Amino acid sequence: MTRTPVTRYLTGITTTGTPHLGNYVGAIRPAVQASRRPGTENFYFLADYHALIKCDEPARIQQSTREIAACWLAAGLDPDKVFFYRQSDIAEIPELTWLLTCVTGKGLLNRAHAYKASVDKNLAAGSDPDADVTAGLFMYPVLMAADILMFKAHQIPVGRDQVQHIEMARDIAQSFNHLYGQHFVLPEAAVDESVAMLPGLDGRKMSKSYDNIIPLFAPPAQIRRQIAGIVTDSRAPGEPKAVEGSALFQIFQAFASEEETQQLRQAYADGIAWGDAKQLLFERIDREIAPMRERHDALISDPAKLEQILRAGAEKARAIATPFIAELRHAVGLRNLAAQAGPTAKQKVQKTALPSFKQYRETDGRHYFKLLDAGGRLLAQSTGFPSPQDAGRAVAQLKEANLAAVEASLQLGAGVTQDELAAALTALAAT
Ligand code: TRP
Question: What is the 8-class DSSP label of residue 350?
Fold first, then answer.
C-alpha cells in the first residue's frame, strides 16, 4: 500500500499581547481552516521562549499565553487533530537551538532584518550599534529554526515579515545536513497573499504597536465603543460614501460574505449614515465572535484545563522531538562512550567530495591505477600489475579500506601522508 505523503505545516505564535481582530482574520481563522485539510499535519505552538526576547514582564507572559491558548481553541482548533503545544514544554527545542547555533555563521545573523533594524536605529541615534540589543534578539532566528526543524515541517505559514527567518532556517538546516548528513527537511515559507490585512481604528494596519487594535474577546460593549471610534470622513447621512480607503468597509469585508459585502457597498453608495454603518459592522462581527466568546470565557476561567490541554499537546510533540534529538546528538558526536565510534564528521563530509580511482595501461604492458583526491591531486600510485584483473582486485581491496593488503604495491603521491591516504580510503569505504 502506498502512503500519500503528508505535508507538515507549522507555525508559532509569540505570547506577548492580547489577540485582536487583526490576528483573528490574518492568522487564527485561516490556520484553523487550514488545520482541517486532508493530507496535512499541523503544528501550532505558543512561542513563549520567543516572547522572552521582547517582554520582561512575567505576569504578562503568563496572561498572554493563557489568552492566546484560549483564543485558538475557542476559534475551533482541535487539539486531538493537530499538535498544539507550548514551546517551553519541549526541552528538546533549546537543546536543538544550541546544536544549530554551532553551525550558524555569525554573519548570517548579522543580516537578520530585526537585528539590523535595531543596529540602524542605534547608529542613527549616535549610540553604540549594539546598545540594548540582547543576545536573545540576535539569536532569534536560530531559536525559530529549531522550532521548525525539530518537526521536519515543510510549509511555514507566515507573514511577509517572517520570510527571511524561514530562509535562514533553510540555510541553517543545509549547513547541518552538509556537516552531519541528511537529518533536516528544508522548510519553505507559505505566504498567503489572499489573507486580508485588517486596518485598525486609525486606518493603519491593526497592530499592537500602533495601539489601534480591537481585542478579539473584549466585552461586546467595548467592541461597540471601539467601532464607534473607527476613523471615517465627514460625509453626512444621505451623502454617498467611498468604499475605497474606508477602514470600516474593509473590516466588514473581512467578516462578511460576498453578498453581504455587496449590500454594504450599495448602502455606501446610497449614503448610509456612518453611525448606521458602524452598527452593521458591530452586528456582523458579533455574529461571528459570540459563539467563540462563550468557549473562550469558559477556558479563561478554567486555566487548569488549558494547562492540561497544553501538556497533553507537549507530550504528543515530544514523541517526535525526543527520539529526533537523540538521533541528532548521536550525529554530532554526543554519544554513549561505550558505543563504537563511527567515521568522524570530517570523514563524512568527504562523501560529497570523494577521491576516485583511475586504471590504465603503460607502454611497459603492465596495468596500473592511481588514486586521485576530489581536486585531482595524486594521493597514491600503484606499481605495475600483470593483468587488469589484478589491478582491479587491488582497487577493490582499497575500496574496502584494506590498505594492508596492497600496501607493498603502492607509492604515495608527493607530500601525501599515510594518514591522509587512510582517511581518503575510509571516506570511500563509508559510501
Ligand atoms: N517569529 C514568529 C512571529 O513573530 C513567531 C514564531 C516563532 C514562528 N517560531 C516560529 C513562526 C516558527 C513560524 C515558525 O510571528
Answer: G
| 142 CA → ligand 1 middle, Å | 11
Q: Whole-prediction pTM value? A: 0.78
Write down the pLDDT at residue 192.
85
Q: Which of 85, 137, 144, 167 to mutate to test the pocket of ligand 1 (most atoms within 8 A of CB)?
A: 144
Ligand 1 site residues, Cβ closer than 6 angstroms: 10-12, 14, 47, 50, 144, 147-148, 156, 158, 162
- Three-class DSSP category at 372: strand
Place of cell 575500496: 399
Mutation probe of ligand 1 site: the residue of 139, 158, 160, 185 with most atoms within 8 A of C-beta: 158
Judge residue 198's burial from the number of C-beta atoms within 10 Å of its C-beta, 0-12 exposed, 13-18 middle, 19 or more buried: buried
What CATH architecture does domain 7-196+302-332 belong to? Answer: 3-Layer(aba) Sandwich (3.40)
The CATH number corresponding to 354-429 among 3.40.50.300, 3.30.160.160, 3.40.47.10, 3.30.420.100 equals: 3.30.160.160
pLDDT, one tens digit per residue, over 7-25 is 999 999 999 999 999 999 9
